[in-house]
Amino acid sequence: MHHILGITLTTLCPVTQPREGVVLSKCQVILLDDHAVFRETLAKGLELAHQIKITGEAESSEQCLSLLKNLKCDVLVLDLSLSGSSGADVLSHIVQQYPGIAVLILSAHAPDHFIARLIRQGASGFVHKSHSLEHVAQSILRAKEGQLVIDNDLAEIIARHDQYGAELPHESLSNREHQVMHLLITGKTITQIGQELNLNVKTISTYRKRIMDKLGVKSNVDMLHYAIQNSLEK
After folding, report:
1. Span 2-161 CATH architecture
2. Reading across the β-sheet that carries 102-107, which strands appear in turn?
3. Cβ-based neighbours of 205, under 8 Å, separated by 6 or more
4. pLDDT band at 15 (very low <50, low <70, confident <90, very high)
């Protein structure tokens, strides 16, 4: 067993061994992640599974959307932390333009409430980058079959939202505003957030003001208190 860039690599056995003489249709997958070494390592590992074929790799949303015009894809494996446009924006585009493609989020930094929001918007599931390669492969195949790939905590958050229905102030935030809010409540400065999201300081300041207006808070401390009260800090 080896640990490379947050993914646990094992000798990946075929997820399901096909019976002799039976040819299974491979799940065609495109990977979108702006960390080349991680993406290439993941691609090589997933290719060891009999039922998975990596048809394309992309490091940006623009490159990914270009690939989708020319390549077959059953499942898009999407990292949320991309330079430039966010993974959430890519999800929105895929859901609208390519409804037959399942989108599986594979990320290391995403709060539960944000993932739950993306699931409601059409994502097929979420897998943390710390999971084993075999778990990722299994999740991809489950997503292809139309299954929802989430853990119990996410399921509870989604069920709670569906039960009560009424929109809370934070549910009016855009996907990018959710992302900026989470980074603010973790203590990061506007400059640090700008560097992480590849956006200028003025843009981040504008997002911060919008977030505070929508939540009805006056400071980052108030924002943190709101997040804790609504279990958004996880």
Report:
1. 3-Layer(aba) Sandwich (3.40)
2. 52-58, 27-32, 75-78, 102-107, 125-128
3. 190
4. very low
**pTM metric for this prediction:** 0.67
pLDDT of the residue at 163: 55
Q: Which amino acid is residue 64, in one-letter code?
A: C
> Nearest 5°: phi and psi at 83?
-70, 135
- CATH class of the region 170-229: mainly alpha
pLDDT in tens, 184-228: 999 999 999 999 888 899 999 999 999 999 888 889 998 998 888
What pLDDT sits at residue 165? 52
Angstrom CA distances, 50 to 24, 46, 137, 217, stand at 9, 9, 10, 52
- pLDDT band per the 50, 70, 90 thresholds, residue 161: low
| Phi/psi of residue 102, nearest 5 degrees | -80, 135
Is there a contact between 181 and 222 (Cβ–Cβ < 8 Å)? no
Check residue 220 and report its DSSP letter. H
pLDDT of residue 29: 96
Structure tokens at 39: 């993406």
Close Cβ partners of 118 (under 8 Å, ≥ 6 residues apart) = 88, 91, 105, 126, 175
Work out the angle between the directed axes of helices 201-215 and 175-185 (0-180°, nearest 10).
90
C-alpha span between 92 and 90 (Å, rounded): 5
Six token digits for residue 231? 């279990």
Same fold: 2-161 with 170-229: no
